[in-house]
Design a protein that fits this description.
Helix content is about 5%, strand content about 55%. The protein is mostly beta strands. The protein has a single domain, classed as Jelly Rolls, CATH 2.60.120. Strands 1, 4, 5, 6, 7, 8, 9 and 10 form an 8-stranded antiparallel β-sheet that branches. The protein has a two-stranded antiparallel sheet with strand order 2-3.
Length: about 140
């Protein structure tokens, strides 16, 4: 059975900045900020990463079994996706408040246009044999 198109295997959601009740949102008040990033999805591993402009990419790999959510906590950059099976490519501008869902089998990497801080949440614990390097064309 053929895999769905790459655009259907990567989802970008911008979490609203709101004072209204919501289970996934951002908010700010005199005390600081809150980020309600994900509600209801199983999470087995969480990591926090930073990336500075001009220092190259973070990522450049794919996972055969593991799906991931990436939440951009601060900054701005670019996310690149590649499907080795179909040759499809997708590039998205990302900014604070964006949450990406990346399906297994999709190669991904990130570049910073300004200092970037992001949280990676995975539906499986880390397994070294599931972390495969990917060569991006071009």
């Amino acid at each position: 059975m053929p895999e769905p198109p790459l655009a259907a295997r990567v989802e970008l959601v911008h979490l609203p900045l709101s004072d209204e009740f919501a289970t996934e949102k951002r908010f700010a008040d005199s005390r600081g900020q809150g980020h309600l990033i994900l509600n209801g999805a199983p999470v087995r591993r969480v990591g926090l990463f930073t990336l500075e402009p001009g220092t190259g990419f973070r990522g450049g790999h794919l996972h055969r079994r593991k799906g991931e959510y990436i939440y951009i906590a601060a900054g701005r950059g670019r996310a690149e996706f590649y499907c080795p099976a179909s040759g499809e490519r997708l590039e998205l501008e990302i900014k604070a408040g964006d949450r990406l869902r990346i399906a297994p089998g999709v190669a991904h990497r990130f570049a910073a246009q300004e200092s970037l801080t992001f949280v990676e949440m995975s539906d499986r614990a880390y397994e070294a044999d599931d972390d495969l390097p990917a060569s991006f064309p071009g």
